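Protein modeling request. Please complete all fields; requests missing the sequence field cannot be processed.
Requester role: graduate student
Desired output: 3D structure, token encoding
Chains: 1
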Amino acid sequence: MSKPFYITTAISYPNGPPHIGHAYEAIATDAIARFQRLSGRDVRFQTGTDEHGLKMAQAATAKGISPQELADEMANQFIVMCDKLNVSYDRFIRTTEAEHHKASQAIWQAMEANGDLYLDKYEGWYSVRDEAYYDESELIEAEGEGGAKEKLSPQGTPVEWTVEESWFFRLSKYQEPLLKLFKETPGFLKPDSRRNEMIKFVEGGLNDLSISRTSFDWGVKVPGSENHVMYVWVDALTNYLTGLGYPQETDLYPKYWSEGGDMAHIIGKDIVRFHTIYWPAFLMSANLPLPKQVFGHGFLLNRGEKMSKSVGNVVDPIALADAFGVDQLRYFLLSEVVFGKDGTYSTEMIVTKTNADLANNFGNLAQRSLSMIAKNCDGKVPEAGPKTDAEEQLASDMTACFSNIKTLMSNGEFPIHAAIDLLRERLSATNQYFADQAPWALRKTDPARADTVLYYTAESIRQLAIMLRWVIPESCDKMLDLLGQDMDKRDFGHLTDAIVSGLTLPAPSGIFPRLEMPEADG
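Delivered output (522 residues):
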């Protein structure tokens, strides 16, 4: 019996509408969650919004509304995005929820009880945009307006010198435990390049961390210090526990966290430090189990350039989905981007890729073969005659493909793109089988052999639709509808349940329309 599996995205900071980077993380995490569900595992998938902090307060002020009004408005946009992109989350968490405030205060009190919090004065550099504190040695110098020198964070964001009373967390105390975690549990942080970066950072020495603010009040109140609100990352990271009912006694927490269920945080590479240094240190302090894995994926680039509002190349994912199709967008992002590395996209790339793989390869194969069944077999799955070497090869290659995909997706690296490459090879091979056997010609000379070819083509399409269902769920379900497959026979456990001869099929219809190249790229 496989362990339960808990998977999360980072919660999105909703001081602006969702962009394609948010969509990519949600889609990739959804694909992993769906793969695990199709494998028969008990999966819980959580996403949400991180609604506190100075950035939100400032964005609300600029709009002339309260932070809560802004949070409500923007959180809804992220929910709409997830629903539009067929993201199968079990829980959408908002950090403004009362139960999340209780969870954040509970972990705070656990850290305090362990002697790891103390009151002092913070003086140092703070980036509002990153919601992060930086040491002087981490800053970079850039030329500002009029040639004046200005200090920027490692991410290139403005920093400001901040002085205020603050609660501190004894992060320095956890330097050696964290190094031990990285070195003795290499699977904790993937890819390995990110783990090496964090080892180097920790080896450089850890300073105690300022974890409260008094200069604004939009956040979770610090227990016993009502004029302080928690540093946004303390409450943001706690969301992963809140969604399982912590600190209450619930069924979810022991199943997915404390009793050793498998789990993974899927996050962007720019927030690895928060998730693999601050978060495990907080959990160690609170005597809580650590997450099993953190995976830091790369950035999605618009024609090779990082997206920014100032450049004007930020793209609305819902507009892309409306223009090209939800599954077309999902397929492109999951197949084109090497998971863990930066990837690039353009509308031309989306059109070219999805036309080649989905319209020409998968869709055309299904349309041609199912139309022949409708026309020549009274719309019923034909009887299969004896297998030739061609059918034996088709079947054994399909079995090997699934075995290889399972191996790939269980190694902790989640090489989604490589798994899809294997499926694309099988699609092409099935097309080649169909073309080589030419059932339209056989129909005139050997109708029984033509029926056999149509049967094994339909069976291959059935298996491919099941194996691709975690990537493009809606389209694969339409394909399985055309093959007359019950909803409860569409997971990996039913791959070996061959399609039944004599089954009446609905009239075939196209699933992947060819996309047109846009006149002007938006």
